[in-house]
């Protein structure tokens, strides 16, 4: 790689700084120069980044200390997302220990389910746990899958599950974050500068093009920035987008702040109503409330009222934005690379999509001036990976049995998703996809939570005797109970982080 190779990263807020810092950290030693063009922030004080567990690994690469991150942002950990259906117009019950009002659900609601960030059960001999659980349930077992999951069981008991050697020997325990967006972006900006990123600010950018190639960016006021590769972290540069509108019913999203909980919950909650859904994402300064809906079924004023009712909280600082989900038709064209996609807000995949694209870009980073082969590899892998994340989100809408006009319209289902649903229903297996970035447990939680019940199981597991399986199940349940009781409450754990360091 030539020492003169320059990467220009354009965008705003956390996506800009994550990408710029990661590129500088990974490539700076090889002589690559990274410059960031910072556009005006699109964040409001009420915004929170709700993240998946994979972000922790990126933080580690950037040498971001977790304790310092949580202290600087007022953030918290989250063990997953709980999905419930509430009857419109009723005051809901909140997380354990912070109850207000009474739950009132529709006459035949879809049962709630928890998408926990961890695995369930341990291997039995050479086999995975899950097919044994499917078989046992067909023979009368009445123990939920969550009871075998350290993460899910801890969440249900209002405790964190912090991985250690004992839990690692049993199964995967992960957590994500709820990070107030403005202080998080500020911390990432400092990390990018620390890693050698040169920062330029601009109100807007115009790409000076020669065919598909960008020669430079016009930043206004006589500023012109030339480079070899231009990276767009959020629509700063022109790109053709492939619409995902047919997969998602929501075209409007509201974010607002409610009071912080007296006892900080360890998971987020998504509450389905007849005209949309409302998510509560707790952090220490406040509770971020996100409400997504279709303008065909509710006005902005009605949506704010629905969010207030569904959350059970007094809301302030409401901001309403338009949703237009989709991905770049070709993420890399010429010397311009687009990271991530415009996701629906359910599940909070924005930063994960950016991270997936960023990791792929580092894998395919050009070794010289001509990079057609790297571009083709990136486009193939990235489009498949982003479409897979889209399918996970769209499955929530396609499979949900919630009542109300928002949920009743047919949703577009991709052939890959249709195949995945059919295979899981047939024998509890997950379709193998090369560009998969979600763990199997996330797909299982989603499918089971929406009533996709496996009708059979792989016959190879029948070699284990019922007595052996029962003994293993009892051992696992005892281990989970024992480990959960050892875990701290989030408030106590965060208080220890905030204590002066001796």
Automatic annotation (TrEMBL):
<dbReference type="InterPro" id="IPR006905">
    <property type="entry name" value="Flavin_halogenase"/>
</dbReference>
<protein>
    <submittedName>
        <fullName>Tryptophan halogenase</fullName>
        <ecNumber>1.14.19.9</ecNumber>
    </submittedName>
</protein>
<dbReference type="GO" id="GO:0004497">
    <property type="term" value="F:monooxygenase activity"/>
</dbReference>
<dbReference type="Pfam" id="PF04820">
    <property type="entry name" value="Trp_halogenase"/>
</dbReference>
<keyword id="KW-0560">Oxidoreductase</keyword>
<dbReference type="InterPro" id="IPR036188">
    <property type="entry name" value="FAD/NAD-bd_sf"/>
</dbReference>
